[in-house]
Amino acid sequence: MQSETFDNFKLHYNGKGDLCILAKHLRNEKDFIYIEYSDCPKLGVTEINSFAERLHEKSIKTGILIIKGSITPLAKQVKKLFIYFY
User: Fold this and answer.
1) Kindly report the CA angle at 53 between 57 and 65, in degrees rounded to 5?
2) Could you tell me the domains of the chain?
3) What interhelical angle do 73-85 and 45-57 show, nearest 10?
4) What are phi and psi of 52, to 5 degrees?
5) Residue 40, φ and ψ in degrees, nearest 5
6) Helix, strand, or coil (residue 36)
7) From the centroid of its chain, how far is CA 45?
8) CA angle at residue 58 from 25 to 71, to 5 degrees?
9) What is the tally of helices (H) and strands (E) in the chain?
10) At 56, phi and psi to the nearest 5?
């Protein structure tokens, strides 16, 4: 894998939509994982709900949301429920 500078990275991945990855399992092609980068400074309930809706719309059971900042206290409670129920 070739390393690149941060400036080149920003030029290549210019928006949040470019940092969303949908990949399928090697052995089970019906099993997907969705990975998304959130550039919100503070992750809230709204962002968690919209991420869960995207997973539900695409019928994906596994997802990873990468955040660059912190999580609001209420979002921490929602996160615990989200992990428990899904």
Assistant:
1) 110
2) 6-85 (3.40.1340.10)
3) 30
4) -65, -40
5) -70, 135
6) strand
7) 14
8) 90
9) 3, 5
10) -65, -45
Give the H/E segment covering residue 4. none
* Type of residue found at 45: V
Q: Which residue has the tokens 């941060």?
A: 6
Extended beta strands in the chain, E state: 20-24, 32-38, 42-43, 62-67, 70-71
Structure tokens at 53: 């809706």
pTM of the model: 0.67
Rounded Cα gap, residues 67 and 72, in angstroms: 12
AA identity, residue 54: R
pLDDT in tens, 34-77: 888 887 888 888 888 888 888 889 888 888 888 888 888 888 87
Altogether, the residues listed in the chain come to a count of 86
